Every structure is written in structure tokens, then in C-alpha cells.
């Protein structure tokens, strides 16, 4: 796997959103739960998460989006990104073995000057809850 852009969106009607994105991408979601779905695509390289509105556990996002991110392929790449961010002076919040969106991951959270939340992360496993 190579890097993918990650976008997490609240969905006021998860079923309607699923129908739209299945049509748009031409395939069903990679993961589907009653309050969450995601599309982990190689073409285009994106990880789109849809979460029933009001359900985002991280509460990182503002406005009509939850957050944006970059999913990295492995721990080595994650460590290199984290080191580069620190050396560049980027202030971030580390989150080790985070459980979110029915997955486990190591993450670093950053905010851009407009308050948009970004996560840089690597998947470490699956989880049974949101």
C-alpha cells in the first residue's frame, strides 16, 4: 500500500451517502457498520470515512467536515514523518494505539492556521467499536 489521503465526513443520512459514494467510486465500501463506513481505494488513492452525523468520537473537526488526514503504509514511514514534523517545528499531539472508526492506529494530530484538523497515521489493527 502507498499513501492515501484521508477525509472523514459526517453523514446526516448514512444510507443516502453510501448510495452516492458507491455510485461515484463504482464499488461498495471497504468497511460497513450501522453508524460508519469507509472506502479505502487505490484508485483514486483515498480513504473516505463516513460517520453518522453527531457520532465522531475524536471531535477534532469543525464545520461540515470531521477532519482530513494522510494514511501511511507502515510504522517506518510514520516514524519518518513524525521525525520530519518535529524537526520542522510542527506542533502535534501524538496518539498511540488510538481506537477510532473500527480500527487501531498510531497518530499525530495537527491543526492548520484555519483550525482544520489533520491526522497523519498508520493502521495497526482492527477494533470492534467506533
List the helices and strands and how they pair.
Blueprint: E1 4-11, H1 14-25, E2 31-33, E3 36-41, E4 46-52, E5 67-72, H2 75-87, E6 93-100, E7 103-111, E8 117-126
Tell me about this structure.
The protein contains two helices and eight strands, in the order βαββββαβββ. It is α+β, with helices and mostly antiparallel strands. The chain has a single domain, classed as 2,3-Dihydroxybiphenyl 1,2-Dioxygenase, domain 1 (Roll), CATH 3.10.180. A hairpin with a 5-residue loop joins strand 7 (103-111) and strand 8. The protein is globular and about 45 Å long.
The largest sheet has its strands arranged as 2-3-4-1-5-8-7-6
**How is the biggest beta sheet arranged?**
8 strands, mixed
What is the domain tally?
1
Q: What's the pLDDT, averaged over the residues?
A: 86
What structural class is derived from the secondary structure elements?
A: alpha+beta
CATH architect. name: Roll
Q: CATH-wise, what's the superfamily?
A: 2,3-Dihydroxybiphenyl 1,2-Dioxygenase, domain 1
End-to-end separation: 24 Å
**Radius of gyration in whole Å, from Cα?**
14 Å
Provide the helix percentage.
Answer: 10-25%
Gross morphology is globular
Weakly predicted, low-confidence segments:
56-62
What's the helix count?
A: 2
The fraction of residues assigned to DSSP E strands is 35-45%
The strand count comes to 8
The fold-level CATH name is 2,3-Dihydroxybiphenyl 1,2-Dioxygenase, domain 1
N to C succession of SSEs: EHEEEEHEEE
What is the CATH C-level name? Answer: Alpha Beta
